[in-house]
Amino acid sequence: MMRTSCELAIIGGGPAGMAAAALAATLGVDTIVLDEQRAPGGQIYRAIETVQARRTDDLRILGEEYAEGAALAASFRASGAAYEPDSTVWQALEDGRIGVSCGGVAHMVSAQRILFATGAMERPVPIPGWTLPGVMGAGAAQTLLKASGMVPNVPVVIIGTGPLIYLIAVQFARAGVPIAAVLVTAPEIGMTDALKVLPGVLRAGRSLLKGLAWRSELRSVGVQMVHGVSQPMVEGSSRAEAVCYTQGGLQHRLEAGLVLLHNGVIPNTQLSLGVRCKQTWDAGQHCWRPLTDDWGATNHARIAVAGDGAGILGARAAANLGRLAALDTAVRLGKLDLARRDRMAIEDRVELAQQHALRAVLDKLFPPAADLLAPVGADDIVCRCEEITVAELQDAVAQGCTDANRVKAFTRCGMGPCQGRMCGAAAAEVIARALGQTADQPGQFRVRLPVRPVPVAELARLQS
Ligand SMILES: Cc1cc2nc3c(=O)[nH]c(=O)nc-3n(C[C@H](O)[C@H](O)[C@H](O)COP(=O)(O)OP(=O)(O)OC[C@H]3O[C@@H](n4cnc5c(N)ncnc54)[C@H](O)[C@@H]3O)c2cc1C
């Protein structure tokens, strides 16, 4: 039976949520972690306990960074924090009430403080052909590998940019997946690029070496990597058959059984938007994120955000931010004094500064690919749920809709089951381009609760 109240409710059991819960519980804060996954780990360490116990061959495939999650999961399990897996949060309110669905039963949990540790999501890549069967996010394909050891057995083409693209390609190559090519929109990173970001490179050295090692591993097993790719599109009548792209001024076509798309990750802001946490535009990462102070606190007294949900910084920083939010919560609940909080925060702040340096380098080396941010063809789909095309959005703009929410009201773009998660960023991009604005100017779609679909029958039987 799910508990109905607690001092701290943490939504998300990834590095941020696990680290926050482990420390908060140790400080005597009555803590519950709600997570829709079956086991702790979040995106990066998904299924780490099962893989470590029963799928040890997959540890070699997923790499040493993945294996590092085992210690964090163990300390979380040992901390005494209550844990509710398989629990999807569909709303969180400013007064601390949380709507959560678990095993087909809806519950309300009341918390004195809520920490959103909901992580990141892949930035949707709405290129022509992205809605065809046989096209998916590269991170989604990696999720299948981590969760259940499932890998494709048809030639795979990976398209996009960002450090994750190389990691995922390496993991697939180790798992024996036939990789037809990795098509990278960023140019090949050479010495000149590294020199441009030299101070950051020196501080972030170890992680960058790892990135270079992934690339040479791919080369050593003969994976074709093409850099400087533009205008990619997926061809196929009823499913993906081939990828067409431009490189070096020439058109190319490559047959593919499965196409994996990736244009970096962005904060998962559905819950923080749903409760109207103030958001800010992050020009470096080209995305919105909730506005937080140094401890993860938002404009709402009861609500904090930590980890990639507050801005993309990676798994280690997520754990640092989770611990800082836990320390601040302990102060607010009267379990810790300010001086001790600040002393206990020192190590995390030092590590966090290193992670900021690494991220600054990664943001410079891997900016999101403009070609992958929004479709350009009039008939290309932007909103998959409501099947709204570029032309329909442009038409709404031509009729005088100058912000994202007005376009949403006119077209139904963003009103489907995903609540704009998949189309919000691309729609804003299309609107901004039509108006000659930057992507932040049209604003964001407002989020309506529930943020996840929940059956009416469940709500009718709500356990409070
Ligand atoms: C698909 C994907 C794959 C990634 N793979 C890697 C990788 O291999 N290596 C790497 O370095 N980085 C990876 N990243 C980036 C990585 O997610 C982060 O750096 C790191 O995991 C952030 O930790 P976090 O605790 O902030 O969030 P996460 O690890 O994302 O944890 C968030 C948790 O919140 C849960 N959650 C979200 N919304 C709800 C809700 N409404 N109700 C209940 N639970 C909810 C999620 O299920 C998840 O378990 C990946 C990102 C994505 C999107």
Structure description:
- The chain is an alpha/beta fold.
- It contains 18 helices and 21 strands.
- The chain folds into 3 domains: 5-121 and 266-363, FAD/NAD(P)-binding domain, CATH 3.50.50.60; 124-263, 3-Layer(bba) Sandwich (FAD/NAD(P)-binding domain); 374-435, Arc Repressor Mutant, subunit A, CATH 1.10.10.1100.
- The strands form 6 sheets. Strands 1, 2, 3, 4, 5, 6 and 19 form a 7-stranded mixed sheet that branches.
- A hairpin with a 4-residue loop joins strand 4 and strand 5 (97-102).
- The radius of gyration is 22 Å and the shape is globular.
- The site of flavin-adenine dinucleotide (FAD) has 37 residues, from helix 1, strand 4, strand 7, helix 6 and helix 7.
Mean pLDDT: 94
Oligomer: single chain
CATH-assigned fold name of the largest domain? FAD/NAD(P)-binding domain
Taken from the alpha-carbon principal axes, the silhouette is globular
Derived structural class: alpha/beta
Number-wise, the strands total 21
